[in-house]
Structures are given as C-alpha cells and as structure tokens.
TrEMBL record:
The active site is at C79, H171, E173. It holds the Pfam family GMP_synt_C. This is GMP synthase [glutamine-hydrolyzing]. It comes from Meinhardsimonia xiamenensis. Keywords: ATP-binding, Glutamine amidotransferase, GMP biosynthesis, Ligase, Nucleotide-binding, Purine biosynthesis. The keyword ATP-binding applies.
C-alpha cells in the first residue's frame, strides 16, 4: 500500500482519487500522526508528500520524519512536499519570490525525456501543468537532477533516480494538469504497484475496518436520509455487522414531496434493515422559527439531529456508534471546524454540527470517497440503479433552499415547485445528465398578473448543475424551450409562485446550494 502524508493541501484527496483510478490502494494520514513508529507499522511500499499552505522557510513548519528517507522506498513530493524533501535532504528553499499561480508549461531536460516516470508524457514536447506556490527551490539536494523545467520554475521536476525520489513543483493531481494522472500512475508503477486494486477490494477493506472499529458486540445507529450516501453507508454497515445496525430515519420536516414514504418502504421492505421512522418535524421546525442565518440553520439542525439520534439510540437498545454518510467534499470544506487546516465555507451538518462531547462514537465509512465513487461502491453492494442514480440531497434538506426565515407555508410551496421541476427534467430525459437539480424559494414577493388579476407571490429560482465531485460545478445549459415550459408549469401548477428564474452561476464562485 501507498502512504500519502498530508501537509494540509486543499487537494490532497485528489491524489488518493487519482491513485484509486490507477487501481492502487493508498491511505492518507496527516503529517502530525506520521512518525518513525507509524512508518514502521504502516510499512508503505511508496510514499507521496502532499502540498500544503505552510512555508518550509518558517520556523516550526511541518516536516516528514527523517527516517522516511532511509526506508528505501520510492517517494514523490508535490509542491510543499517537494520543498520538504529538498530541505530535509540538504537542498535549499527560499521564499519571497514572485508567487506563481495557474497554468504553466513544463519541458523535459536533456535525455530525461525517456525516463520511466515520463512514460506517455511529453508526446507533444511539453506538458501543461497547474502551479500554485509562493516559495521555490533554489538549490537541489545532493543526488538530485533536473528532469523538467518551466519558465517560472527551473526545478519543476527533479529526481534522484538512484533512490527513486521524485519531486514536482506543480500539482499533478488536479484536472488542470491534464496528464498529471499519468505521472502519478508512472510513479506507482516504478514503485512496483501493478494496478490490480478494485472497488470490490475497497468494499472488503471497508467492511473489515467497520468490523474492527465496532468490535464483535458493538451496536451502530445510522441516520438514514434517503440519499445515496447514507443508504450506501447503511447497506455497507449492514453487510459488516448485520442486525447490530439500526437505522433511524429522521423526518425533520425538510424533506421533498413523498420522500419519507419512499425511504421507509425501500429500507424496511426491500432491504429488511431494522428501521425507526422518527417524525420530528415539529421539533425541527419550531427550533428553526425566526432563524435566517445559514450557519445558524445548519448548526441548529445538526445539533437537533444528534439529540434525536441519541434519544433513538437509547430506545433501540443502546448503540455506542453513530454512522454517517459523510463524504470527502464534506470533510474538506468543514475541515477547519474539525481542527485541520483550510477555511470553513459551510459547516456541513454531518461534521460541523457535532457537539464537543457526543455520547456516540462516529462510524464514517465513506469519508475518503467522492460521490461517483460512492455510487460505484453502491453498485458493488447491489443497490438498484434507480436509487444509485439519485441526485444528492443535503442533510439540512429544504432549510438551505429557503433563504431567510423558514415557514411551513414556504416549505409547502417549495416542495411543489421542486417536484414540478424534477418531473420536467425526468420527462425530458435529462435527469442522469445533471448532477443535482432543485428549486429554491426566494424570500421576496413580486407582482405578477394572472388572468385579469394582480398576484403578489413568491419568486423561485431553479438550480441545475453538472459536476464530477461536487467540488466544482457548472450550470446546466437547458434549452429556452425547456426553461419556458418549466416556468409556465410552475407558475400554473404551484400556488404561491408567480415568477421563476434560472441560476446560471458556476461553482466557484457560487456554491451549489444557496446557503
Ligand atoms: P455546496 O453548496 O457546498 O454543495 O456547493 C456541494 C454539495 O454538498 C451538498 N451539501 C450538503 N450535504 N450536508 C450534506 O450532507 C450539508 O450540510 C450540505 N450542504 C451542501 C450539496 O447539496 C451539494 O451536493
């Protein structure tokens, strides 16, 4: 297995993802945890050092354990990881150079073009890469040679071929480095990985880890939302520990039209998984009365969720574990809440709303996965395609699609508008092309005219995006015909809405949800 040492880059998980795509098993561990003893125990076959926000020139900045470099395993340093390698192996790094962000072109140096690390690369002479750094290497560590340069980065790719140490200034893991995945793959092949690891193997590994964490008698309670994530988590955990899993489906009054019935039928009747249907809508909706700040909404919902779980866990016979379908994008965007690096964009309720002292331990078997990988895992677990293909639905539900204060009236209107929009998308055969689509009810009333009468009703916005992993997204380019037909249907069929707009913001700078 391959070890990724995380120095806190926003995109470390993408390294893991690229490796999974190359069918290589890897694990990410934060640098704080990786010491000599850890390395010995883990016994990695190869190591990748991630990027990170720090500067190696600052006193106390993160390092790898020095023993790493004596283990005789191939190492690849990326960006901050490159600088760590250079300073720890006797080279030199300076800050204060002009920062370099964005697209650059790397060319191979001399006859290094034919090195195994470059297999399939530089076929057109140069490679486009994504740079993002402030510091740069000014003197190479002994044993290293320059393999590739760019106009702004003379040491864009360096290597010590004798020890199989490689270090790159740019980020090969991001989409903006189009052939970066190839470089990572080449590195793993040099390290002896054959690329025979699969999602089936991941499933087995995940089941093993759940059993190990929960122990032979532990009981798990799982919050089921009806979305793909919690469903896959539930089925996976059920496969690992059988009926020691109880699912609690919390109806927080923020679900879509007909959703509650659908989920209960599916899990109780189809999967035979023990399920408690907790109708707590009164509790949630009254707690949300008068709350209009998005973070406060999320925190309120997150807090109540935990309370409700604890109550039902006790009723179900005392579970010690709480399972959640937290995905990697939830983790990275909330990571400063949980004590790591990077900035809070939104406190996704799965992780952000957890009280400091929760009585239950967390089981989060999907924490390392992106949405499309969860779907693949779902297929591996035999979930029906219709279910796997469902658009994601956020834990806080319609609360974050109702900017401003939430009222029962607005929720009812929103549900019906959303149902019409999704029906339109299905009728036009577009559901599977779209990553996520939903309606948002705006906190404004506008004037309209229907028949001969004046109306003064809510406006709604429609959101439909394409995305690979939810981290970035673009709006879906509906035809004008589709948009007018949909707007007409919504205004005609949904009482309380007299105006429809379509949101054409990408992410970034927008986010997918409005709150
Ligand atoms: P944003 O709005 O952050 O959404 O661009 C990215 C993806 O995450 C979903 N989302 C959430 N999922 N709890 C969840 O389980 C949350 O609090 C939450 N907030 C956003 C969102 O629907 C989209 O798929």
């Amino acid at each position: 297995r391959l070890l990724i040492i995380d120095f806190g880059s926003q995109v470390t998980q993408l390294i893991a993802r690229r490796l999974r795509e190359a069918h290589v098993y890897c694990e990410i561990h934060p640098y704080q945890k990786v010491d000599a003893a850890f390395l010995k125990e883990f016994a990695p076959q190869a190591v990748i050092l991630s990027g990170g926000p720090a500067s190696v020139t600052e006193p106390g900045s993160p390092r790898a354990p020095q023993e790493l470099f004596e283990m005789g395993v191939p190492i690849l340093g990326i960006c901050y990881g490159q600088q760590v390698m250079m300073v720890q192996l006797g080279g030199h790094v300076e800050s204060g150079h002009k920062a370099e962000f964005g697209r650059a072109f790397v060319e191979p140096v001399g006859n290094h073009r034919d090195e195994p690390i470059f297999e399939g690369l530089f076929e057109n002479g140069r490679e486009e890469v994504w740079m993002s750094h402030g510091d740069r290497v000014t003197a190479l560590a002994p044993g290293f040679e320059v393999y590739g340069t760019s106009p702004g980065a003379p040491y864009a790719i360096v290597a010590d071929p004798r020890r199989h140490f490689y270090a790159v200034q740019f980020h090969p893991e991001v989409h903006h480095t189009p052939n970066g995945a190839r470089l990572l793959r080449n590195f793993t092949r040099i390290a002896g990985f054959t690329g025979d690891w699969t999602m089936g193997a991941y499933k087995e590994e995940a089941i093993r880890r759940i059993r190990e964490q929960v122990g032979p008698h532990g009981r798990v309670i799982c919050g089921l939302s009806g979305g793909v994530d919690s469903s896959v988590a539930a089925v996976l955990i059920h496969e690992a520990i059988g009926d020691r899993l109880t699912c609690v489906f919390v109806d927080h009054g923020l679900l879509r039209l007909g959703e509650a019935e659908e989920v209960v039928t599916m899990f109780r009747d189809h999967y035979n998984i023990p399920l408690i249907h907790a109708d707590e809508s009164e509790l949630f909706l009254s707690a949300l009365e008068g709350v209009s700040d998005p973070e406060e909404k999320r925190k309120t919902i997150g807090r109540l969720f935990i309370d409700v779980f604890q109550k039902h866990a006790a009723e179900a016979g005392g579970a010690e574990f709480l399972a959640q379908g937290t995905l990697y994008p939830d983790v990275i965007e909330s990571v400063s809440v949980t004590g790591g690096p990077s900035v809070t964009i939104k406190s996704h309720h799965n992780v952000g709303g957890l009280p400091e002292k929760m009585g239950l331990k967390l089981v989060e078997p999907l924490r390392e996965l992106f949405k499309d990988e969860v779907r693949e895992l779902g297929r591996e677990l035999g979930l029906p395609e219709r279910f796997i293909g469902r658009h994601p639905f956020p834990g806080p539900g319609l609360a974050i699609r109702c900017p401003g204060e939430i009222t029962r009236e607005k929720l009812e209107i929103l549900r019906r508008a959303d149902a019409v929009f999704i029906d339109q998308i299905r009728r036009h055969g577009l559901y599977d092309e779209i990553w996520q689509a939903f309606a948002v009810i705006l906190p404004v009333r506008t004037v309209g005219v229907m028949g001969d009468a004046r109306t003064y009703d809510y406006a709604c916005a429609l959101r439909a995006v394409t995305s690979v992993d939810g981290m970035t997204a673009d709006y879906y380019p509906f035809s004008h015909e589709f948009l007018s037909e949909t707007a007409n249907r919504i205004v005609g069929e949904v009482r309380g809405i007299n105006r429809v707009t379509y949101d054409i913001t990408s992410k970034p700078p927008g986010t997918i949800e409005w709150e």
